[in-house]
Specification:
alpha/beta
């Protein structure tokens, strides 16, 4: 008897799961139906700021696999503009609303929930006005492009996280006057404040008006369209508003069906991406995962995690064995001329996790100082005073800086001490690094700092 796999969500996690399951089980053994409420599937959400900014000019270039590839080559019945509105576990079926608004039921034997994340939208006066955009899906990005075609002049970005900052830069590239408002004292709350301050300076250099420590209280509108963003101490004119207030797991469907949701609002799974409900799997931004340093549950919306988790779910559905071990929170971004990267824990996160964190900042260059094109960069390493273990690292610099975070992510993953990192055999040539790579110099300085303090334990 042919088994039925239903996948809710047609982007990274969902289509990775569907593809991996198909690789291991043929159509006569497993029928796969995937539902995506948007007009696109299997696309790069991370590319949306560059589409808005004009560096990427073709929407379709962000699509990894077109729908006909899934249908004709992989025999996956992918249905776009079709939304799953209910999961009925007793009936073993999902309620589906198609593009015309018609409602029907689709049975399943196995179910993958890959509903992603939803952008934060404040419950404030005027928040429903036209011209206020969240940016989470490719459809959101296309809607923002269409709004730009109407010729707005003043834009306000609310929130100073990755999306907020990338969108602020994109709007400047489009020729708008841009203001950024953030309730925090520095942008990039995933960095320590001393590193986030470097980003604030870069934004100002780009001409963005940065308003920190300012909480938005509402939106003024006229004729149903936003005209200004109002804070406690300011009012900023706006033809266009982009919300960069972070995301939360889109677990509403799962929770309504009685599928277990964790303290982060993400769906709970084991390492094989199984939920506690028989035959139900979950993957991607909608799930709660495990942080390997803090040993705490976290919800981190990243395409890297979503693809890996979807792959794991699909392999297991297909009869193989795979597991997702957890995360260390590695992320990288380009903001203005600066590259920004982080891994592991910030100083505050490390303290909350029970460590005694010690931070050390080192400044160096991306290449040998005498080689043309050398750029400045700063690395901050955060180590545990008691053991010397590297708990986290952050990098802010210009071209050639950010990808050094990968070496540090490996060190965090394997619980290396900063002293051990100083001995790593990293590559050297003047076009790529000083003779002492900045990673090694930062580790050495952190180790010396710990030695001066005297380790505990």
């Amino acid at each position: 008897m042919t088994e039925r796999l239903v996948v809710i969500g047609g982007d990274a996690a969902g289509m990775s799961a569907a593809s991996q399951a198909r690789d291991r089980r043929g159509p006569d053994d497993l029928r796969i139906v995937a539902f995506e409420k948007g007009a696109h599937a299997s696309y790069s959400a991370c590319g949306i700021p560059y589409l808005v900014g004009g560096e990427v000019t073709d929407v379709e270039s962000l699509v990894s696999r077109r729908p006909e590839v899934f249908r004709d080559t992989l025999d996956i019945d992918l249905r776009l503009r079709t939304e799953v509105v209910e999961i009925d576990l007793d009936r073993r079926a999902v309620a589906v609303r198609d593009e015309e608004g018609d409602l029907g039921w689709e049975p399943f034997d196995q179910l993958v929930i890959a509903t992603g994340a939803v952008p934060g939208r404040p419950d404030l006066p005027g928040a429903g006005a036209g011209g206020i955009h969240g940016v989470q899906t490719l459809d959101d990005g296309i809607a923002l492009l269409r709004a730009l075609e109407r010729g707005p002049r003043e834009a306000v970005v609310v929130g100073g996280g990755y999306i907020g900052l990338e969108m602020a830069e994109a709007l400047v590239r489009r020729g708008l006057k841009v203001s950024l408002v953030d309730a925090a004292g520095q942008p990039m709350s995933t960095l320590d404040p001393d590193m986030g301050a470097l980003i604030a300076d870069a934004l100002r250099d780009l001409g963005i008006r940065v308003h920190l420590g300012e909480r938005v209280e509402g939106f003024e509108e006229s004729g149903g369209h936003v005209t200004a963003v109002r804070g406690e101490n300011l009012t900023l004119p706006a033809d266009l508003v982009v919300l960069g207030l972070g995301t939360r797991p889109n677990s509403v469907l799962a929770e309504a069906a009685g599928i277990e949701v964790g303290e982060t609002s993400g769906i709970r799974t084991d390492r094989r991406m199984r939920t506690p409900t028989e035959g139900v799997w979950a993957a991607g931004d909608c799930v709660e995962t495990f942080h390997l340093v803090s040993r705490q549950p976290v919800a981190i919306a990243l395409g890297t995690h979503a693809n890996k988790q979807g792959r794991v779910a699909g392999i297991n559905i297909g009869g193989g064995h795979a597991s997702f071990p957890g995360v260390v929170g590695t992320a990288v971004s380009k903001i203005c001329e600066y590259e920004v990267a982080r891994t592991g824990l910030t100083t505050a996160e490390a303290a909350r996790a029970g460590f005694e964190p010690v931070g050390e900042i080192m400044e160096s260059t991306t290449r040998a100082g005498y080689y043309p094109g050398a750029r400045r960069m700063k690395i901050k390493m955060i180590a545990d005073r008691g053991t010397g273990r590297l708990l986290g690292a952050q990098i802010v610099g210009q071209e050639g800086a950010a990808k050094r975070i990968d070496a540090l992510a490996i060190a965090v993953w394997h619980e290396m001490t900063v002293e051990e990192i100083t001995g790593l055999d990293l590559s050297y040539a003047p076009p790529f690094a000083p003779v002492w790579d900045p990673v090694l110099i930062a580790a050495r300085k952190a180790a010396e700092h710990l030695e001066r303090l005297g380790r505990r334990g």
